[in-house]
Design brief:
Distance between the termini of chain A: 124 Å
CATH class of the largest domain in chain B: Mainly Alpha
Radius of gyration of chain A: 41 Å
CATH superfamily of the largest domain in chain B: RNA polymerase sigma factor, region 2, helix turn helix motif
Oligomer: heterodimer
Order of helices and strands of chain B: HHHHHHHHHH
Strand content of chain B: under 5%
Largest interface: A-B, 28 and 39 residues
Strand content of chain A: under 5%
CATH architecture of the largest domain in chain B: Orthogonal Bundle
Structural class of chain A: mainly alpha
Number of domains of chain A: 2
Helix content of chain A: over 70%
Largest sheet of chain B: none
Shape of chain B: elongated
Largest sheet of chain A: none
Distance between the termini of chain B: 46 Å
Amino acid sequence: MREPELSFRALAARLPAAPVFVPPADLWPRIAAAHAARRRRRRRWRATLAGLGLAAALAALWFAPLRADRERIDWQARAQALELELDALPGAGRAAPAAEAELARIDGALQRAYDRGARSDEVRPLWQARSELLSALLAARRQQVLPTRI
Amino acid sequence: MNAALEPTAGFDQPVEAAILARAQRGDMQAFAELYRGFGRACFQLALRLLGQRQAAEDLVQEVFLKMIDSIDKYRGDAPFGAWLKRMTVNACIDQLRRLRHRADGDPEALFAQTASGATDATPRLDAWTLLGHLPPRARAIVALHELEGYTHAELAQLFGQSESYSKSIVSRALKRLHALVEPNPSAATERVCASRN
């Protein structure tokens, strides 16, 4: 025989009425206060993020000219100044053969670049290499000159 | 028409579009009106499903805060009460998942967790105390099926289980509750048959 179908409602109908439960009177004020506290926390967090963003933007603005300056160095003028300085030191024209060869190689490359009408950004690395080589030569020459001065 | 929301009317009452529009603009007064209309229903449903007053209060707070955050996503496809009720049921199920017991997936082990019989210390039974004799997950499934009209297919989806799991829980739970109310099974059977005739 099939079992009769049981039902909670039928069962509950035979029992005394269940008490009616109501939420405490202060539940909505608590919810509203929690919402307000959450909004304050979010606002503070947004302000912190905005402050950090602003600081990052200011830092970028502050450092941008320095970076641009670094990129704008006139390697050609610097190389020419170093060459004059090198010529002024005693023993001018007595560079090491390897350095002489490297200098000649760079000068040749510069000449060929100018001959074919190269743009300034193409010749800049060559002027930079020439300038750095002259700077190294100048430092080495000063080391040799120093003891004779003493 | 300017019908005020009624605290005892449950989830089924309609909500004026103007109140919803104000709530969607973040007007806390409108949220207070929505709470006045639905707070009690939300609390009673949470209490039925969770069985503990403090847990139900916390859940109502969680649901209303979530509702405040997400009301701008409410498009009115379903009545507001149904939307809020679904949110409440989902939050209750999440809460039960957090309290998950290892035996929750096995109906037999689930009922073995709690004592089944009425004792001399059993207080005066009513529908509320009766539900309290079930394990937490079984209580929620029975309340949703028997009192809130959820189908076994819906329950299976909500709890991430099969339909037969839900059917088994309801059947075992009702047998246990009948045994509590009517310790003599033949008397219970006769009563059910008589009520049908």
